[in-house]
């Protein structure tokens, strides 16, 4: 199969969809890999490294798309990229379609098959291709949250862990999944006062055991969340409903009762955000202030630590990329029900039910898809 790896063009996105080692595995399996020149520069992979792995270097994105059957990316295709997709293409990348009707319509019009990393599952019902970036984003959320708490960034002027005689910052984490757990680990390590909210009593018990009393856990009800948010210095939004838009857990009314200079970090912004006042920002302009509360809502947080993120992501995606290349998309999807759950768009139809529901369009299961 002919595999194309374009250079990411989202603002300040330095990750790349395939490492040279990954390219080498694909070429050893008999596939042709074409990488856009400069695609790996942001993480220290030169064109020569890809050529040494057996890949060919393409001069621009147009050449990558025109010569490929399978496009492997990191972030959702931008409009100029969607315009290059055809019914002959299979796209394998993060999509996050629920809050993005423009992208969804572009993919439908292209006629391509689009498989989303974030809805591929495993035998335990988890999301193995979302997990590595959730780990990165969870850890980063405390790093950026601590920075935003600094007075020069519009924050309260607080040190996350305090010092002897001065209380630490109160950190509230909404969601005890992968991102929330990694956020809690970093916040607790910085000696903050940490509370994690979740709707699963089982998960709260697991977290209590994992952290052995170093954090507090709380069952998530609207009243409990409101009280905690109003008292918080830093709130991390880490709620996930696979493929669907995130619920709005923090309202504008709550902001009016929060402390001036408090900080909200919305890890769920790719799925529309879990704060009512959230709007996607970029690494160039990462924050904005509403009612005195600093919002950090960068939609590609892991792109700031692109080298770590690229290795973590491609470690997880490569086996699936190999399966798609070795078997062809339709055969691979029918051979693996977990990969098939990543199918979001096919030949002009939305094929993932939660996405269709949020977009208000019909859900269509392809007649050729038998694995689910």
Structure description:
The chain has about 375 residues and is α/β, with parallel strands linked by helices. The protein folds into 2 domains: about 1-120 and about 305-360, NAD(P)-binding Rossmann-like Domain (Rossmann fold), CATH 3.40.50; about 135-300, Rossmann fold (3-Layer(aba) Sandwich). It is built from 14 helices and 15 strands. It has helices spanning about 20-30, 45-50, 60-65, 80, 100-110, 130-150, 180-190, 200-210, 220-230, 250-255, 305-325, 330-335, 335-340, 355-360, and strands spanning about 1-5, 30-35, 55-60, 70, 90-95, 115, 170-175, 195-200, 215-220, 235, 265, 285-290, 295, 345, 350. It has an 8-stranded mixed β-sheet with strand order 3-2-1-4-5-6-14-15, with helices on both faces. It has a 7-stranded mixed β-sheet with strand order 9-8-7-10-11-13-12, with helices on both faces. Strand 7 (about 170-175), helix 7 and strand 8 form a beta-alpha-beta unit. The longest helix has 22 residues, at about 305-325. The two termini are about 25 Å apart.
